[in-house]
Design brief:
By secondary structure, this protein is mainly α. It has helices spanning 6-9, 15-27, 29-32, 39-44, 53-66, 69-84, 113-130, 133-149, 177-184, 188-194, 215-220, 222-232, 246-263, 266-282, 313-330, 333-350, 382-397, 400-413; strands at residues 98-99, 107-108, 111-112, 160-161, 164-165, 168-169, 240-241, 244-245, 291-296, 305-310.
């Protein structure tokens, strides 16, 4: 997606939005990051729109450092727009992959583990910064969805939930007025008004639920949403990609572990511990190296599956981050020990002589060039997460070698 120039972003803006974006641009490059497909796109018609959790996290950190209200306002505008739109599953929780329009209404209905792992932490951190209980609720709805629909009996997390069922994209998620009236009876009109359900619909003659009410209405409609969820469970579900990726599981492990600590949710801690056990038992080899992927065998004896493919940098760095979050929650030393062992393996096999890390190991199959991605994309940069994890290890161990490696890595990103 091309960056949007600040001047481009001002095209077709209302005067209030123009002033807002001019102020953001004045405050510096951190604030301009969101202009590309968040605030600018909402007015100038750009689509599709993808959530940008790394940017939201950066802005939350920037706000914590500066207490600048414009910084926080940028995040709040973005995260509020997403949870009101159809990109968020208003009945079952969790985010779809992206919005096909400019206002988060019509999603591509696939759900990705990595999106929901990152966004769960975004809303958790937004709750911690603002005190807005609704953000806490969204965090819990995301994680509860993952427990319910994306967790293997062995403890790993599946990769994706498909967009279509019965060969029709979105069929599982959309509603007609008659379907809602059949479930909610006398409460149907209030629900349909709050969620913009109409006779003509907003997606191929049916309605994607989009919240247009106020927070009091949303709380008051919780029972109605549960009733619709129960009925929706009787529909044919979208399929799943049930392979388990070390990297994406590391992201979700970190989300559950941090949420367990921040929200005082012991059940989330148990989910995280079970996932960490699974990853270390099933995806770590006897020599300490990681496999990238695992999938249950067709006969599906619990825990019986095949792990394969060499791990990449992100497999190590994301899992180390997840294990360190879990250690900070439970203080069980086995998670710290495993994180440090994996960090030493990562340093030994992925570190570049000039600083930073390669995406592939030193004994990976020969490639034309050995890749080294320094930028966040749909998932965080393996280099960025590795650097963060090593700085955390330095703080926990007082081993300044980790600081030196991190500093050299940061030099490659400047």
């Amino acid at each position: 997606m091309r960056p949007v120039l600040v001047q481009d972003s001002f095209d077709n803006m209302r005067s209030g939005d123009l002033r807002f974006l001019q102020e953001a641009a004045r405050l510096g490059p951190v604030h301009v990051l969101l202009l590309s497909d968040e605030l600018a796109a909402s007015q100038s018609g750009q689509a599709p729109k993808f959530p940008r959790p790394s940017v939201y996290e950066l802005l939350l950190v920037e706000y914590s450092r500066t207490q600048d209200p414009t910084t926080l306002d940028m995040v709040v505008r973005s995260v509020d727009a997403m949870i009101d739109g159809g990109i968020y599953d208003q009945v079952g929780g969790g985010f779809h992959r992206y919005s096909t329009d400019e206002r988060w209404l019509v999603p591509h209905f696939e759900k990705m583990l990595y999106d929901n792992a990152q966004l769960a932490r975004v809303y958790l951190h937004a709750w911690q910064v603002t005190g807005n209980e609704f953000y806490r609720t969204i965090t819990e709805e995301i994680l509860d969805y993952v427990v319910r629909e994306m967790t293997d009996p062995a403890g790993g997390f599946y990769s994706t939930q498909d967009a279509d069922s019965e060969g029709v994209e979105g069929k599982f998620f959309v509603w007609t007025p008659d379907e809602i009236r059949a479930v909610l009876d006398g409460g149907a009109d209030a629900f349909m008004a709050a969620y913009a359900v109409t006779r003509h619909g907003n997606f191929e003659g049916k309605s994607i639920l989009e919240f247009v009410g106020d927070m009091d209405q949303r709380s008051g409609l919780a029972v109605a949403r549960h009733k619709l969820y129960d009925v929706r469970e009787g529909r044919i579900h979208p399929g799943r990609d049930e392979k388990i990726l070390t990297s994406w599981n590391g992201l979700m492990l970190a989300a559950f572990a941090e949420a367990a600590r921040a929200l005082d949710r012991e059940d989330y801690c148990r989910v995280a511990e079970r996932n960490a056990d699974f990853l270390l038992c099933e995806l770590r080899q006897e020599n300490g190296r990681l496999h990238r992927t695992w999938k249950a065998r067709p006969e599906q004896v619990e825990g019986s599956g095949e792990a394969k493919l060499n791990g990449y940098l992100e497999d190590y760095s994301y899992l180390i981050e997840g294990l360190l979050e879990l250690y900070q929650t439970s203080f069980d030393p086995r998670w710290f020990v495993a994180a440090r062992e994996l960090a030493e393996t990562m340093i030994a096999h992925y570190q570049s002589p000039d600083g930073g890390f390669f995406d592939t190991s030193d004994d990976h199959e020969a490639l034309i060039t050995r890749p080294r991605d320094l930028q966040d994309n749909a998932t965080p940069s393996g280099n960025g997460v590795a650097t963060t994890a090593l700085l955390k290890l330095a703080g926990l161990t007082n081993d300044m070698r980790y600081v030196g490696i991190s500093q050299r890595s940061l030099e490659q990103m400047q």
